[in-house]
Amino acid sequence: MTGELAAAVHAEALKLRRSRMPWASAGAMVLAGAVGAFFMYVLQDVDRARSLGLLGTKAQLTGGSADWPGYFALTAQTVSVGGLIVFGTAVIWLFGREFSDRTATDLLALPTSRTAVVLAKLLLGLVWCVLLTVLLLLLVLVLGAALALPGWTGEAALRGAGAVLGTGLLTAGLAAPYGLAASVGRGYLPAVAVLFLTVLLAQVLAAVGHGAWFPWAVPALLAGTAGPVPADIGWAGPLSVLLVALASAAATALWWERADHSA
Questions:
Q1: Contact 186, 98 (CB under 8 A)
Q2: pLDDT tens across the length of the chain (263 residues)
Q3: Which residue in 77, 86, 119 sits closest to 192, CA to CA?
């Protein structure tokens, strides 16, 4: 199984390297970092931003602070919401392309188990998402230094970087079900519909105070998107995310093993 998995990972990595998707997803994360830096720049001096035409005269900004803890917090919140869309799209592409390109049946004819193929796609998706998170974090460090943000300490940097990376890992785990949706739906569109449905439900449930019971809302709540972290999350929140990721991986592998791929 180990040899099959290594071969499957190598094959999937070649597909990814020859695609434009890594560049598109990296561009999305760079844009997210730049938008965060823009908000920090505006918060540093709102009157200056208005005088430069960067902010409407009647615009009011509330919340957030133009310092390193504030920038890290904003980045973690960005990863919890925008990252789910980017990561979900990446996983959807890994699985959905096999059906849109009509290579799914060819893939199954290879001397590699279907479970190994699924695990390879999910592992590659996880590495992809982690690298995107690291890219965003590095960009934040560069832009924050360029803005000369106050509040830099070793403790604040470790806490902030840990929050961003932890949020990225949780969000990456929640992208696993979209691979199942792309497989069962045999293409991109059904999985994209599931992606936007979960993002919408996460926002609504978090707003009404029930987000702790919905795994897709957990990263945003832990990142402080809806205010102080709810006391009822505890370890149950991250644990629910882990269970969703593992259950989705198992269900996807089972579907690929037993589904009628001739349909």
A1: no
A2: 577 888 888 888 888 888 899 999 999 999 999 999 988 888 887 776 666 565 554 445 555 678 899 999 999 999 998 999 999 999 999 998 888 877 766 666 666 788 888 999 999 999 999 999 999 999 999 999 999 999 899 899 999 999 999 999 999 999 999 999 999 998 899 999 999 999 999 988 887 777 778 899 999 888 877 666 666 677 778 899 999 999 999 999 999 888 766 55
A3: 86
- In which region does residue 43 sit, left (phi positive, over 0), alpha (psi from -120 to 50) or beta (all else)? alpha
Sign of CA dihedral 43, 48, 53, 57: positive
The full 3-state SS of 32-53, as one line of letters, equals HHHHHHHHHHHHHCHHHHHHCC
pTM for the full model? 0.89
DSSP, res 230? P
Query: With the C-alpha atoms ordered 26, 27, 33, 36, is the resulting torsion angle positive or negative?
Result: negative
Amino acid letter, residue 258: R
The residue among 204, 238, 201 whose CA lies nearest residue 222 is 238
Can you tell me the distance from the alpha carbon of 176 to that of 247, in angstroms, rounded to the nearest whole number? 9
For the chain, give every domain's residue range.
2-258
* CB neighbour burial string for 210-231, b if at least 16 within 10 angstroms, e if fewer: ebbebbbbbbbbbbbbbeeebe
